[in-house]
Design brief:
globular, binds MU-OXO-diiron, 5-stranded antiparallel beta sheet, 9-stranded antiparallel beta sheet, 652 residues, alpha+beta, single chain, 12% helix, binds calcium ion
C-alpha cells in the first residue's frame, strides 16, 4: 500500500540509515581498506567478531526482564547445507515480465482461485468484473473481498488437497471497488450503501478449498465466512477494558480493517494484522488531533475513502465515538475452523501499523512474535510470551495475552538490542499510568526508549532452522543519498533485506547485517534485480521467496523471486556464497499495476498460494486479469495457485 511513505515520527531517535552508514564505515575501518565488493559482506561479519571482543561489557538498557544478554555470541551454526543449491528452475527473463498478464517460469503452472467477488458458497451470486456494475453491499458481504494480501492454508486432516484458507483483504479504492471517481480515492463514497460496499470489500475471508479433478476451487462449507469492519470482536490482554478502548456512547467493539499481512499459531489459529487503519477515519466537524492521533497519522480526510461522512464510528469529530480509533491497529486472532468464534484483538502485541506477525516457538517453549510497523521511520518489534505456551494454554491463558513487548534498537556494532516496553522502565513510568496505556500508544513508548527508526519494515520471516535466522524486508531507504568509500552502494532507494541471527529468540541482544540491497547488489540490468521487497518467506531448505510492491527496474511488473540461501553462512571462514554470487531467480510476474503479496503452501510444499493485489489498480485499459486483456472486464485481485510441472517442491 502506498500510504506508508510519510513519517509521523518526530522523535530524535537515530534513523536506521545513519546506523547503517556508521556500521558500513566501521566495517571499512575494520577491513583496513580491503575491497568490499565481492567478499566484503561476509568478511565484514568476521571483522565484527573482532569488534565484539571489545564490547562484551555492554548490556541492553533494561534488558534484564527474563532474557539473557547475548553479547559474545559465537556465529557458527550452519543449517541449510545443500550442496549444489536448492533453486534450479528456469527463471523468467526480465524482458518477459511486463504487460497486462501474469507470467510464470516454464517449469511451473499457475491457476486462479477465489478472485474478488467470488461467492463464498458456490451457489451464491458472484461478481465477475462487469464494468457497468459492482456488487451491492449485501452481495459483497457474501463474496470474497478485494485487496488480497496475507493468508494461510490450514490443511484439513493434514491433506495437501483440502483445507481452509484464511485471507486478508487489505484495501480496495473507491475507483476499483465502488466504481466511482477516475482512479484511486479521487472521489469519496457518497452514500451509506457505497460505504457499506467499501467496508464489506475489506476485512478477512475464511473459505474451504479443495482440489477436485486437478483444479482448486472453493467448496460449500459452514466454515466459509466474512469478517469485516462491522463484525463483533473482543479485546484481550493488558489493554482490554481500559477506558481508552471505550467510547462515551458505549458501542461494543466491532471489526477489523486494512488487514495487511498475517501470522499463524501452533495452536491452529490465524493472525490478521491491521495496518493503515488511520486512513478510514476523518472529521465532519471541528477536530483537533491529540498527540496520540498525530503519532498514528489521523487527519481530517484520511485516505479520502469518506466513510466518516456516513458512519459516525469513523468520524473523529463525533465525541460520542471518542476512542473508536484506539480499537484499531492490533493483531487479531481468528479460529479458521470455528465460524462462530468472535475474533480477538490481542493487545499485548501492541498498537501500530502492523505488517505481519511472524510467530515462532523458542527452545524454552515460549512464543516469540516478530512484527514490523510499516511506516517510514517506524520500528521493528519482538514479543515474548510470559511462559511455556503449552502450559499457558492448559491453564486457559493465551500466550498472546501475557508477555513482554520489545522494540529493536539497531547499533552500528552490528547488534540489535531488544528494549522492553514495560512499566519497569523509568522513562515509561514517567509518561504512562499503566501497561495498557503503553500498549495503546506503542509508537510513543518506543520513541521514548530510543528505538531505531527503520525504512518501512514490511514482512518478517523466521527460518525454521536451529539458529533462528530472522529476515526482514525494508521496502526502501531512499533518503540515504550520500555514498562514501565505505558505502559504495548508496543511495539505496529500492530497499533491502535485513538479516538477524535470532539465536533461538532467547537473547536480548542479537547480531544483524544486511542480506541484500535490492537493485544495487547486482546492478542495473541484472536478471536478479528486484525493487521494494515486501512479502518474504524462508522455507526449511533455505529458499527465500521475495515478493515486490513498488516500481521495478526496466518496467518490470511486480514479481516473486526465489533466492538460494542454502549455503548462507554467518562466518566468513566458512562462507561459500556472497551477495554477488547469490542465486536469485524470477518465478512469477504479476499483471500490470498489481503488487504480489501473501504466501502459504500445502504441508508438502508442492502447492503454493500467492496473491495478485490491485491488478491494474482497477483500470481495464491496463489489465482485466484474470479475464483476458481486451475483454473490458474490471481486473480482480486473485489468489494464484502454483505447482511445479514435475510435481516438485515449490522453489526448486
Ligand atoms: Fe500492507 Fe506495508 O503493506
Ligand atoms: Ca498492499
Ligand atoms: Ca505489504
Ligand atoms: Ca508495500
Amino acid at each position: 500500500m502506498i500510504h506508508d511513505n510519510e513519517s509521523s515520527n518526530l522523535s530524535k531517535n537515530r534513523p536506521f540509515e545513519d546506523v547503517l552508514e556508521a556500521r558500513m564505515s566501521r566495517r571499512g575501518i575494520l577491513a583496513r581498506g580491503a575491497a568490499l565488493s565481492a567478499t566484503g559482506f561476509f568478511a565484514a561479519i568476521a571483522s565484527n567478531q573482532v569488534l565484539a571482543r571489545g564490547a562484551r561489557a555492554a548490556t541492553a538498557q533494561g534488558a534484564s526482564n527474563g532474557t539473557s544478554v547475548g553479547v559474545g555470541d559465537t556465529l557458527i551454526a550452519q543449517v541449510f547445507e545443500q550442496p549444489g543449491g536448492v533453486v534450479n528452475f528456469e527463471a523468467i527473463p526480465i524482458s518477459e515480465g511486463s504487460g497486462p498478464d501474469a507470467n510464470i517460469s516454464p517449469d511451473y503452472n499457475f491457476e486462479v482461485l477465489i478472485p474478488w467477488g467470488a461467492s463464498l458458497q458456490p451457489t451464491g451470486t458472484s461478481y465477475e468484473g462487469d464494468p457497468n456494475s459492482r456488487p451491492t453491499a449485501d452481495q459483497q458481504a457474501q463474496q470474497i473481498g478485494i485487496g488480497h494480501d496475507g493468508m494461510h492454508f490450514f490443511p484439513i486432516d493434514g491433506s495437501n488437497e483440502h483445507g481452509v484458507i484464511a485471507i486478508n483483504h487489505e484495501f480496495g479504492t473507491n475507483f476499483h471497488l465502488v466504481g466511482i471517481g477516475d482512479g484511486g480515492n479521487a472521489e469519496q463514497v457518497q452514500t451509506l450503501e457505497q460505504t457499506r460496499l467499501s467496508q464489506n470489500g475489506h476485512g478477512v475471508s475464511v473459505i474451504e478449498v479443495r482440489k477436485i479433478n486437478g483444479t482448486w476451487q472453493n467448496v460449500a462449507s459452514d466454515k466459509n465466512r466474512r469478517i469485516t469492519v462491522n463484525t463483533p470482536v473482543t479485546f484481550s490482554g493488558p489493554a482490554a477494558g481500559h477506558p481508552l478502548l471505550q467510547t462515551p456512547i458505549g458501542n461494543n467493539p466491532q471489526g477489523t480493517v486494512n488487514n495487511c499481512s498475517n501470522g499463524k499459531t501452533p495452536w491452529g489459529t490465524y493472525l490478521t494484522c491491521e495496518e493503515n487503519f488511520n486512513g478510514y477515519f476523518g472529521a465532519t466537524g471541528e477536530w483537533t488531533p491529540t498527540a496520540s492521533q498525530e503519532r498514528y497519522g489521523f487527519s481530517e480526510t484520511g485516505f479520502n475513502y469518506g466513510w466518516y461522512n456516513h458512519d459516525p464510528r469513523f468520524d473523529l469529530s463525533n465525541t460520542s465515538y471518542r476512542n473508536e480509533e484506539n480499537r484499531f491497529g492490533w493483531v487479531v486472532e481468528i479460529d479458521p475452523m470455528n465460524p462462530s468464534q468472535t475474533p480477538v484483538k490481542r493487545t499485548a502485541l501492541g498498537r501500530m501499523k502492523h505488517e505481519n506477525a511472524e510467530l515462532v516457538v523458542n527452545p524454552r517453549n515460549r512464543v516469540v512474535v516478530y512484527m514490523g510497523d510499516d511506516q517510514r521511520f517506524d520500528y521493528i518489534y519482538r514479543f515474548v510470551s510470559a511462559g511455556n505456551y503449552q502450559q499457558m494454554i492448559r491453564q486457559g491463558r493465551s500466550p498472546l495475552d501475557e508477555g513482554i513487548l520489545y522494540v529493536g534498537q539497531f547499533r552500528p556494532s552490528g547488534r540489535v538490542y531488544w528494549l522492553p516496553l514495560t512499566m519497569d522502565n523509568p522513562v515509561l513510568r514517567e509518561n504512562f499510568a499503566n501497561q495498557a496505556e503503553i500498549l495503546i500508544n506503542t509508537r510513543i513508548a518506543a520513541d521514548l526508549v530510543g528505538a531505531t527508526p527503520m525504512d518501512r519494515p514490511e514482512w518478517v520471516s523466521v527460518a525454521p532452522n536451529d539458529r533462528g535466522d530472522v529476515f526482514i524486508s525494508l521496502t526502501n531507504n531512499s533518503q540515504r543519498t550520500q555514498s562514501d568509500r565505505a558505502n559504495p552502494l548508496a543511495p539505496n532507494p529500492d530497499g533491502h533485506i535485513l538479516w538477524i541471527r535470532g539465536k533461538n529468540h532467547i537473547k536480548a541482544v542479537n547480531r544483524w547485517d544486511v542480506l541484500i540491497r535490492s537493485v544495487e547488489t547486482h546492478g542495473e540490468g541484472d536478471e536478479r534485480n528486484f525493487s521494494d521487497p515486501d512479502g518474504i518467506m524462508i522455507d526449511s531448505d533455505g529458499r527465500l521467496f521475495i515478493q515486490t510492491d513498488g516500481g521495478q527496474q526496466q518496467e518490470l511488473n511486480n514479481q516473486m523471486l526465489v533466492a538460494d540461501l542454502s549455503n548462507l553462512r554467518p562466518n566468513a571462514r566458512e562462507n561459500r556464497i556472497n551477495r554477488d554470487q547469490m542465486d536469485i531467480r524470477r518465478m512469477f510476474t504479476g499483471p500490470a499495476g498489481c503488487e504480489v503479496t501473501g504466501i502459504t503452501t500445502t504441508p508438502d510444499r508442492r502447492t503454493m498460494f500467492i496473491n495478485v493485489q490491485h491488478p491494474g489498480d482497477g483500470d481495464p485499459s491496463l489489465t482485466s486479469f484474470p479475464a483476458p486483456f481486451g475483454s473490458g472486464r474490471i481486473p480482480r485481485d486473485s489468489t494464484i495457485v502454483i505447482t511445479k510441472k514435475d510435481g516438485g517442491i515449490i522453489g526448486s
